[in-house]
Fold:
Amino acid sequence: MADFATKQDLIDRFGSTELTQLTDRTNRPPTMIDDTVVSQALGDASALASGYVGKIYQLPLAEVPQALVKAVADIARYYLHGSRATKDGEEERAYKEAVGWLKDVARGTVQLDVGGVPPAQPQGGTVRVVAPQRRFSRESLRNM
Structure:
């Protein structure tokens, strides 16, 4: 499974300073972005998103839409903050919005632009009923 967002997406959205502070767990003060920590957060966020997106779209996607990149980046940022995320703060609000948006994608109320590939439509089938022969009918009960 490929990640829907990259380290560079996180840097572009939230800045290298914040990413350094969230991921450098060895140096005090933080001096560098820890790629392992970033990869773990992005992997976890992408796995969460795959669970929702995979219900409607065939994975891997040919093209990752920017809305999905944003949602995964917001979720990864929330994961990086962990217990330091403030209740009802910016990170938690963005996380809840992203998960809500992913739920809408899974329900089919939001459609992703995945490079011209239409979402998989549910396959309809036929219903076949098998039952024993009728014992009573209008004709058989007519003279009773």
